[in-house]
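Workshop exercise sheet. Pairs work together: one partner reads the sequence aloud, the other fills in the structure field after running the prediction. Swap roles for the next sheet.
Pair: D.N. / O.F.
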Amino acid sequence: MTANGWAQIALILGLVAATAIPLGRYIAAIADGRVTFLAPVERLFYAPAGVDPAQGMGWKAYTLAMLASNLAGFLLLYAILRLQGVLPLNPEGMGGQSAWLAFNTAVSFVTNTNWQAYSGESGLSYLAQMAGLTVQNFLSASTGIALALALSRAFAAGGVADLGNYWADFVRITLYLLLPLALVVGLLLVAGGVPQSLSP
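Structure field:
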C-alpha cells in the first residue's frame, strides 16, 4: 500500500474517533426528544396518523409499527419500479421492471441490503432512483437506528415494556440526523464538482 493509502486510512480513522462522542451525544439527544428545531415539521407527520410521540410502546407494538412502515415502503417502491415506464423523469423511456425483479429490488432496498440484479442507471429511470431507491436507503437507515435505540432502551430498562415510540424515533432520526448529514455531504459533493443533471 502506498503512503497516500495509509494517510487516507489514518484520516478516516481520525475523523471517526473525533466525531464518535459528539455524534453519539447528539443521537442520544434526538432519542430523548431534546432536539426540537424542526418540531413544527415533526408534528406534520404525527398529527394525520394520530401518533403521540410521548406514548411509549412495548416490543410488540414497536415491532408491528416497524413492520408497517417497511411494508408501506416496500409497496411504494415496488409500484414505482413496476410503473416506471409510465411515470415522469424517464427521459430514456425505460420500461417497468418485471414482477420478480421489482420484488427483489424493493425487498433488498427496504432491508438495506441494496442488492441489484440489473444494470443500475441503464435499468432505472431517474424517478425510480431518486424517489424509490434513495428514499428507501434513507428510511432503511432510519429503521436500523430506531431499532438500535429500542435495543439500548431495553438493556437500560432491563425489559421490553417501554422501548420508546417507533414513529417518533423513525421521524426524528430522519429529520434531525440523516437529512442534515445528507445536506452537508451533498454540498461537499457539489463543491467538489460531482455532476448532477436530469439529462438523458
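Discussion prompt: The chain has a mean pLDDT of 93. What would you look at next?
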